[in-house]
Design a protein that fits this description.
This protein is of the alpha/beta class and about 260 residues long. The chain has two domains: about 5-195, 2-enoyl-CoA Hydratase, Chain A, domain 1 (Alpha-Beta Complex); about 200-245, Lyase 2-enoyl-coa Hydratase, Chain  A, domain 2. The chain is about 45% helix and about 15% strand. It contains ten helices and ten strands. The protein has helices at about 25-40, 75-90, 110-115, 140-150, 150-160, 165-170, 185-195, 200-215, 225-230, 235-245, and strands at about 5-10, 10-15, 50-55, 60, 95-100, 105, 120, 125-130, 165, 180. The strands form two sheets. The protein has a six-stranded mixed beta sheet with strand order 1-2-3-5-7-10, sandwiched between helices. The protein has a four-stranded mixed beta sheet with strand order 4-6-8-9. It is globular. It starts with a strand and ends in a 10-residue tail after the last helix.
Length: about 260
């Protein structure tokens, strides 16, 4: 059975981790995730992606540590590279990605959520990057994504001290955007994904590109790009449809082109 199951509901794809008991990542499942994101980017009918779990206890416990119990640096590089390739692909996904966190999100299990645009956590959830406690370090973009999202201080507490945070604390420090009751994270994620369908997917793609650019470039360097992409929208069918639908007082029919 595949460790990642894909279900499409309208314009939303749900990728459910299904590797019991703890939904651990392997190089194979990471390669599968990378392939899924590539397929969704090529699908003009896809606007949103939800990363979910089939377990209320585990969102994902991260890497399968049994795969690190060796002295082969080549194998360790292969695994680290698989994390990097898959999670970079997820972070660069064209649409809006949402993590529906249930239970424990540890190590690579939290990192996959960090690479999503939004994070919803059920009230029983706990999150941590505990890799230093077993002589490793987060290699799924965690050392870069976490401080950007919650600030250096809390990132250092979680990474350098191995502190675990509850869903309530995660909401307080900005790690998640909302905490919901047990068993409802997927429903909330679907509710948010439905809002994405009201937006022009072309506009969303350009907006996300500009927002993400702020992480690596000085703000002033993207002022011109913002104007360029605004004008570039005039090459799209969605711009024409969106304005026409507004003027005609009807719901737009997006083409994602």
């Amino acid at each position: 059975m595949s460790t990642l199951q894909v279900e499409k509901r309208g314009h939303t794809a749900i990728v459910t981790m299904n590797n019991p008991p703890a939904n651990t990542w392997t190089p194979e499942s990471l390669a599968q995730l990378q392939g899924i994101v590539a397929e969704l980017n090529a699908d003009r009918d896809n606007y949103a992606l939800i990363i979910a779990s089939d377990s209320e206890k585990f969102f994902s416990a991260g890497a399968d540590l049994s795969r690190f119990n060796h002295d082969d640096k080549g194998l360790s590089f292969t695994f680290a590279n698989a994390f990097g390739d898959a999670f970079e692909a997820l972070a660069s996904y064209n649409g809006v990605s949402i993590a529906a966190i249930t239970g424990y999100a540890m190590g690579g299990g939290l990192e996959v959520a960090l690479c999503c645009d939004l994070r919803i956590a059920e009230e029983q959830s706990q999150m941590a990057l505990p890799e230093a406690g077993v002589g490793l370090l987060p290699c799924g973009l965690g050392t870069q994504q976490l401080p950007w999202l919650i600030g250096e201080g809390w990132a250092k507490r979680m990474i350098l001290l191995g502190e675990r945070v509850t869903a309530a604390k995660a909401l307080e420090i900005g790690l998640v955007q909302e905490v919901v009751a047990t068993g409802t994270a997927l429903d909330k994620a679907l509710e948010l994904a439905a809002k994405v369908a009201n937006q022009s997917p072309t506009s969303v793609r350009y907006c996300k590109q500009l927002i993400m650019a702020a992480r690596s470039q000085p703000m002033a360097s993207t002022y011109a790009l913002e104007r360029e992409l605004f004008v570039k929208l005039w090459d799209s069918e969605d711009q024409k449809e969106g304005v026409a639908a507004f003027v005609e007082k009807r719901k737009p029919q997006w083409k994602n082109r």
